[in-house]
Amino acid sequence: MRFGVTTITILAAALAFGLTGCGDTSSNSAAATKSCPKSLHAGWQSVANRIDAPVYCPTWMPDPLTGKIGNEYNTVDSVDARDRSYLIGWDWQESNTGEIHVNFRGYIGRTAIPTCDDTITGAGTVKHRKIHCFSDFAGHVRHGGVRAAVYTANQGADQWHILYAWRRSGSLYTLSEHVAPPFSYKQVRANLNRMLETLALVRPA
Length: 205
Prior knowledge:
single chain, alpha+beta, two-stranded antiparallel ribbon
């Protein structure tokens, strides 16, 4: 599909509007007043210390997942030493039942939508291009003092996920969940709303 200059400009503006609409979550938000449970705190404190920035501890996640870093469902615990971005993910799968996959990300010191690699193949050629890692802005939600932009087309580890993105103190944070059985799209949105509502901020020690 080919896009003219006007179409591309409109698409870029829509993406910017979505993230700009996130605003900057106040340090006095509800998340800042909640406590990360003792059973989860050590793992999230470690991440905050590694990146020297606050992180969001999930005090509720869809069963059987929990926000404990290092448990059996925690499949990704990654911090990029170069830019302090992080990806923490949990994944539960069961044959004939489905999958529950949740990711938390932070882009420290950056608020722009990150870019991902995209590969196009055809007619014996392979082309690479950079695209936004999340797109298809679908409005805003506000829970727990956090106003997040909603994106429904995402790349990389967040592919096939609904993703919530918000800013805090000059950094971008995201929360996403895969839309797959046993949950419908509506149920995934409800899960994300509840997770956003119950986040607790953990500051570096």
